[in-house]
Amino acid sequence: MDIFLERKSVRKYADGDVKQEDLEYILRVAMSAPTARNTRCYSFLVIKDKKTHKKLAAVHKAAQMILQAPLAILVVGDQNKAYEQYLPQDCAAATQNILLAATAKGYGSVWCGVYSNEERSKAIEKLFNFPKSIKAFSLVVIGKSADNNMPKDGWDPEKIKYEIWE
Ligand SMILES: Cc1cc2nc3c(=O)[nH]c(=O)nc-3n(C[C@H](O)[C@H](O)[C@H](O)COP(=O)(O)O)c2cc1C
Predict the structure, then answer these.
(1) Res 141: pLDDT
(2) Domains of the chain, residue spans
(3) What is the pLDDT at residue 19?
(4) Which of 10, 54, 57, 66 has the most CB atoms around it within 10 Å of its CB?
(5) Distance between CA atoms of 114 and 86, rounded to whole angstroms?
(6) Which of 2, 7, 9, 153 should be mutated for ligand 1, with most atoms under 8 A from CB?
(7) For residues 26 and 101, is the Cβ–Cβ distance under 8 A?
(8) Which residues contact 119 (CB under 8 A, 6 or more apart)?
(9) What CATH number does the domain located at 13-143 have?
């Protein structure tokens, strides 16, 4: 399986949990993402509680699939630890690693954007009573896929230029 080309956004889930050992692998891969000046400003809030899933669905209209899924990971960054303004890039790299690691372990997943939607991020930060420096970046929903769609083929030679822009 080529996890890089087979990853796709999955928004329909079958019954079944994410195994603890798989979750740990996914988080280990998340923490292997690069960060500017190696600040490792990210943290990961694992959320399995259906009551919390309902609260998240109420404040994130584009994350309704969370209601069917066994688990979500909220990727957050600590503004006090991040180098300059690189918190979003650091958290984005970790988020992408989560998606690829979940694919590698046979799960479906989807990146639900939080940053830089002010209304969503404020609502989520309030929901978890985060200290001021902790910024909600993305909500990754993970579960056994019930989606038979093919991954999109993003290959487009027109997006590549060599040496000069023309
Ligand atoms: C920054 C960002 C925010 C996104 N937010 C959402 C979201 O809130 N809800 C959702 O269902 N998908 C969301 N997506 C997933 C995109 O819709 C998806 O990646 C895109 O349509 C391409 O499809 P693919 O992931 O299957 O290749 C987001 C993706 C990114 C990178």
Answers:
(1) 99
(2) 13-143
(3) 98
(4) 66
(5) 16
(6) 9
(7) yes
(8) none
(9) 3.40.109.10
Going from the Cα of 163 to the center of ligand 1, the distance in angstroms, rounded, reads 31
pLDDT for the residue 133: 98
Please give the number of the atom of ligand 1 that sits closest to the Cα of 11. Answer: 11
DSSP string, 12-38: -B-S-PPPHHHHHHHHHHHTTS--GGG
Q: In this structure, which amino acid lies at residue 89?
A: Q
Listed as ranges, residues in the chain with pLDDT below 70 are none
Quote the CA–CA distance of 66 and 101 in Å, as a whole number.
Answer: 19
d(CA 77, CA 86) in angstroms, rounded, equals: 10
5 lines ligand 1 (CB under 6 A): no
- pLDDT computed for residue 166 by the predictor: 82
Pairing of strands 42-47, 108-113: unpaired
Look up residue 105 and give its two tokens. 């372990």
User: Under 8 Å CB-to-CB from 140, ≥6 apart: which residues?
Assistant: 72, 73, 74, 75, 95, 98, 99, 102, 109, 110, 111, 112
62 lines ligand 1 (CB under 6 A): yes
